[in-house]
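=== RUN LOG ===
request id: a7f3
mode: sequence -> structure
chains: 1
length: 29
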Amino acid sequence: MAMIDRIALILVIIGAVNWGCVALFSLDL
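=== RESULT ===
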């Protein structure tokens, strides 16, 4: 279960970073 929780946490962090990059690029453009 800990492994699944860790993978889910990593996916959430990657998603948050991805949204941040999209927001920065859309603001710059």
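=== NOTES ===
Residues 1-29 form one domain.
The radius of gyration is 13 Å.
=== END ===
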